[in-house]
Amino acid sequence: MQRATIVKSLSLAWVALSLGGLGTSSALAATTATPETAPITQTAAPTATQPKPGSPEYPAYLADQVAQYGDVKDTLIPLEGTKNTRDIGGYKTADGKWQIRQNRLLRSDNLSKLTPSDATKLSKDHHVTSIVDLRTPGQQSKQPDKAIPGASLTSISILGNLADTNGKGDGEFYNWQLEFGYHAVTGYHQFLNMLLTNPNATLYHCSSGKDRTGIGTVLIMTILGMDRKTIINDFLQSNQTGRHVERAWIMEYYREILARYGTMDKYINDLLKFTPAQQDQLRAKYLISTDGQNTSYPAATNPSAPQVPSTPAPTPTPAPEPSKPTQPNTQTPTKPTPNKPAQNKPTQSGKPHKKQPKAKIVSMKKFNTTFNYRLKANKKTFKDAYLHKLKGHTPKKSVKKWKLVKVAKVKFKGKITTHYQVKDRAGHQVWLLKGHVVKIHK
Asked: How far does the signal peptide extend, from start to end residue (predicted)?
């Protein structure tokens, strides 16, 4: 993901990276503990280069994708104007007792090329009455959605005003823009709340229906109780529609969340502020039994009863977390807003909060070098050069070889420093000061 001469200013107050609270999962009781729900400790290796549709290698690649991850045609809605419109209805929970209702949750790429017959089909056959556009305002203005009769349109830009993806994603893009980015946190919160109010079908989409839409689907299916294998398979089926996603991206997404929150449930509850009571309402709204009776999933709480958001897990860092949102009204969803650091307000230790400094990216360049690097012993590593977020230190005896991925010039506290992003063979990435890496020959 190349970002050249782009200047960004990101406040630490915008991102709540809770490093504690590794509690057990409170997800749907029917979701049993399996290897797919166990913590991820290592990133999966990137997949091979995807051949282009129409190339001689593509049929074999497509057959391999179907064999590994299932056939996208099982959920695909054939339309003339889109490639990646799917009904996620029919997916079963981990214990097989419940499934998602048909014609209620549709994921898609953009709707700018919908034909009149496409629009009629989505309206009459799939009962779409709500469209959620996850693209940026610029993307929407360049390729505006075609209207679907009787359907409202809501814009929720998951990337804010700038889509810095160059038309593709990568592991870092998922981690820091779709997991912890301010607009992603507030946007997915609003999106999940909207799903509680629509009595018919919601179609949600981005540009290609694979990244922002893919993560929205991961969140929905996690709450509804699908196991991780099912969720990953659905994510990777975008490859069968001519799009490009990699298993390494979604595995890194899981790994980063579980490293900070312990479970996906805690991430959804503590950072996205979508409470257990709301999650239970979502299951009651979208799950039915698989025994042929189509019995609705029983709600554990009274939907009309007041909901109380759970208290976020304490964080050992002074960086403020997004404040608890006012309890969402089922008719008008609210979104979490970041707290502003209180000036001269004593903390538990008696020390006043200090306003968090901002970091600016002066320049960014992507590399693909043939050289290897070693890290100097016991040097500070940063998980994110933009936020200057300290991760830890390099080992005292560093023998592992790394590849240079990116170089960035960062202005922090009035000083410009150069950072290298390096990656090991397992796909783990860290940022270090330029002087803390040593180049060696291949």
From this structure: 1-29
Question: From CA 234, how far away is CA 34, in angstroms rounded?
Answer: 18
Amino acid of residue 401:
K
- The structure's pTM equals 0.63
Q: Choose among 273, 363, 347, 283: nearest CA to 310.
A: 273
What sign results for the dihedral spanned by CA atoms 268, 273, 277, 280?
Answer: negative
Bridge partners (DSSP) of residue 131 are 153, 203
Tokens of 103: 């014609």
Contact of 140 with 239, CB cutoff 8 Å: no
The residues pairing with 392 across neighbouring beta strands, listed in sequence order, are 381
What would the two tokens of residue 97 be? Answer: 């007792």
The interaxial angle of helices 228-236 and 212-224, nearest 10 deg, is 160
How far apart (Å, rounded) are the C-alpha atoms in residues 114 and 227? 33
Rounded Cα distance between 103 and 122, Å, is 9
CA–CA separation, 83 and 63 (whole Å): 18
Contacts 24+ apart (CB under 8 A), 119-123: 119/146, 119/147, 119/148, 119/149, 120/149, 121/77, 121/79, 122/77, 122/79, 122/148, 122/151, 122/203, 123/148, 123/149, 123/150, 123/151
Residues 6+ apart with CB under 8 A from 317: 17, 19
Query: CA 218, 223, 224 angle in degrees (round to 5)?
Result: 100
Label residue 141 exposed, middle or buried (CB < 10 Å: 0-12, 13-18, 19+). exposed
